[in-house]
Amino acid sequence: MFKLGWQVFRTRFDDAIDRRRFRRAAWISAAAATLVLIGLVVLQVVFGWAGDTAVRPTLAVVLVSGAAGLLVFACFPKATSPDPAATINGRPVRPDERLAAREPVQPYFGVRPRPVESVDREAVLTDVPLVQRALIRRMTRFGPLALGVALLGVTAVIVGGWHILSTAWTVVYVFALPGMVRLLGRTERARLAALAAPAPPEDAAAPRASRRRDPPGSKIRLPGE
């Protein structure tokens, strides 16, 4: 599932992420990382905040600078403009990946594959692209954020002398990224299963309304009638 999910991520990346916004965020984050790098080098030369050895200060400066760039990159919007129809009272709405799929469609994204029923075929084919776009947007924002926090946690262990258990939570979030990629692969598996499923039968024509046998008017009898 990971390989299939990564393939979907690369294929549908342009559908979810605006390349122009992505490049702008990358340039700004690179500039921010460079400024932080210069500032940390100056602070190290003046105050020696990262220690007196050669290896530890170098690692600290590189890790903190990289974390700053990743955090800045995560803060910038990179998603494509929403569909004009995806608005509520004129306000753009981007559904979460769990809300993008209807309730009958979500069981097909489970770990164990299951055949798509013909009645759910159109719903799966409609909802899967929405779920995939929402997942790619979330991965593009959550990934740099998780990596940046993890680098700060590693820096705290190397330079600050913190115990590794006290900063382990900063690395835990990184392990959520492979799970998102596998979920992306399961959505594609459901889409392929829906394409292979037979089309639902056409609805039978609605029966015609029977002719009224009683005359129109009130059915209440008055005294003497």
UniProtKB/TrEMBL annotation:
Keywords recorded for this protein, A-Z: Membrane, Transmembrane, Transmembrane helix
Low complexity bias locations: 196-208
Biased composition (Basic and acidic residues): 212-225
UniProt region (Disordered), positions on chain: 196-225
Membrane is among the record's keywords: yes
TM helices/strands, residue ranges: 25-47, 59-76, 142-162, 168-185
Entry protein name: Integral membrane protein
